[in-house]
Amino acid sequence: MNRRQFLQTTATLATAASASWLGYRYLSRPPSISVNKVGLPLAHLLRDQQFNAAPSREHVCETLILGSGAAALSAAWYLARNGYTNFCLADGLERNGNNAAYAYLGSLKMSKANFSEAKTSASSEPPLIAPSGAHYLAQPSAESSHIRQMLADLGIIEGYDGAGKPIYCDTDLVNAPDERLLINGAWQDGIIPQPHDPDIRRFFALIAQLLHARGSDGRKIFAIPIALSSQDPQWRALDRQTFAGWLAEQGYQSPRLLWYLDYCCRDDYGQGIDQVSAYAGLHYFAARGNEHAPVLTWADGLNHLSEALRAHAKIQSHEQLPNARELTFRQPESYPYAASHIAEHSDHVRVTLRHIHTGDTRRIHAQNVICAMPLNIAQRIIQNPQRYGFAPDFRLPPSAPWLISNFVLHSFPAEPKRSELAWDNIVYGSQGLGYVVASHQRIHVARPSHTIFTAYTALNHDSPANIRRQLLTAEPRDLLDIAAQDLLTAYGKPFWQHVAHIDITVRAHAMSVPSAGYLTHPTLIALRQHPSRLHFAHSDLSGYSVFEEAAWWGITAAQRLLGKGKRQAA
Predict the structure, then answer these.
(1) What is the pTM for the complete model shown?
(2) Do residues 287 and 317 both lie within one domain?
(3) Using CA of residue 92, residue 266, residue 263, residue 205, what is the dihedral sign?
(4) Same structural domain for residues 274 and 241?
(5) At what angle do helices 476-483 and 14-25 cross, to 10 degrees?
């Protein structure tokens, strides 16, 4: 696919495309661009089962965790806080998974999210850091007690008030102004378009009723984690239609409301109201019950939480697996290996691991394995996947492709009068999701001279499969045309005068999409319930990707593992 064909498939971005390429080409020193296509080519080689090298060594261990995303690290946190430390992690294709971060260290332009390397650099110049994946955590609901306990362990929750509500460390809550919307040529505070028309008021009146509503079984209709939601069939029937279809049935016609709801679905689910389930659409607004509460965020996004979980569990990172046959760990350890084959036997799980940089291949015989990798990868490398409930044709819910683009700025662009740069900045009517300011949490000290603006784009202008094919051959400047659209709308061509470097992270399978029918997807139900030495743990099990869901399944897997161990010991 050539550049013209690629841009034709993104026709809605044509204006931004022209402004992007022509806008910075005239500069005497145009900014450099680097592209990180996460996991490639290794992920496709794993998918196609192209690795057959004999292992250089074989090992035995008690517990192996595959992956290092939110589910894997939540499992590690739970195991360690309950006194179990004899386990290791194979970090997978990317350290911290979708919670990874990007670092820019002066003149050193890092082509991928290697935040940990920058942080330990000997350079006297501190790195600029920004998310290259998830960038915030909503204040957890009462049902998400596992997250509250985790945040308390990490010092983010400092206690509880007389009403039992958490008291958060002030520096972990997003600073004001937290969000703004560019609409009709001017910025407004907040991202719900103003003034609020009758449809907007009617929709949020409904949400106010649903926030604490309960089904016939006494459970909250919409809860997070979703496993704790009501099973009332009247409400779960919403999963049979799209959110757009339900909104039309209910008579919602306001363009402003429909755009806002579509934006929210793209932001949390990677696809819009035409693609996601009506149940998921309402769940987004009604599940947490703490509306208007400021979110938790950090310069490097949820990478901050991932690294904090590693530190709390005292996970020691090493570049290479040891040579000893028997692996025992007084403290957990992690290694940059990815699983290429998994086979469960009666007394162990045999896992083949490949080093993501050197290709070193090892085979581990583990008593238990927590499989915290995305299901679309797991299904390809597990022997006899039908045993666990994977359908023969491997049909899982679709996954959404994303771009996360970090614009390194040597100076701040000018803001219009009577407008102040916010943490999250959204453009009304855009196909993008706006941009967040990595240095925003530092504004209570002093505005830095340098910063990073992180632009988010959920690509849903075509089917996910077609978009992934386009992304494989897209040139860096083609991706830039999409990535820069909201920034150019906000600042125009002068924006390029402030840009030193652009790093674009391509996440072709960023997140599961809760499309209609996801609540009763047979493969997900089977994987959640399967009992064996191979424990599945990933947000994919919920049918959509947020931190609370990933943590729920990671902790659930850890609880099963500890329970099984206790029964064996007894």
Answers:
(1) 0.92
(2) no
(3) negative
(4) yes
(5) 120
Residues 6+ apart with CB under 8 A from 232: 215, 216, 217, 219, 221
Say if residue 167 is exposed, middle or buried (CB neighbours under 10 Å; 0-12, 13-18, 19+). Answer: exposed
pLDDT digits (tens, 9 = 90+) for 417-451: 888 999 999 999 999 999 999 999 876 566 778 99
Let me know if residue 171 belongs to a domain: no
Q: How far apart are CA 380 and CA 101, in angstroms?
A: 27
Cβ(242)–Cβ(262) below 8 Å? no
In this predicted model, which residue has the larger pLDDT, 385 or 123? 385
pLDDT at 109 over 60: no
**Residue 382 belongs to domain spanning:** 42-97+300-393+519-569
What are the C-alpha distances in Å from 418 to residues 188, 349, 542, 549? 10, 62, 43, 40
Closest CA to 59 of 335, 374, 372: 335
| Alpha-carbon span 46 to 375, nearest angstrom | 13
DSSP structural state of residue 103:
E
Per the structure, the count of domains in the chain is 3
Give per-residue pLDDT as tens, 11-59: 445 455 555 655 676 676 778 999 999 988 887 777 777 777 889 999 9
CATH code assigned at 202: 1.10.405
441 plus 492 within the same structural domain? yes
Report the C-alpha gap between 380 and 14 in whole angstroms.
37
Are 425 and 182 a contacting pair, CB within 8 Å? yes
Tally of CB atoms within 10 A around 17:
22
**Residue 186 forms part of a structural domain:** no
Q: Model confidence at 484, in pLDDT bands (50, 70, 90)?
A: very high
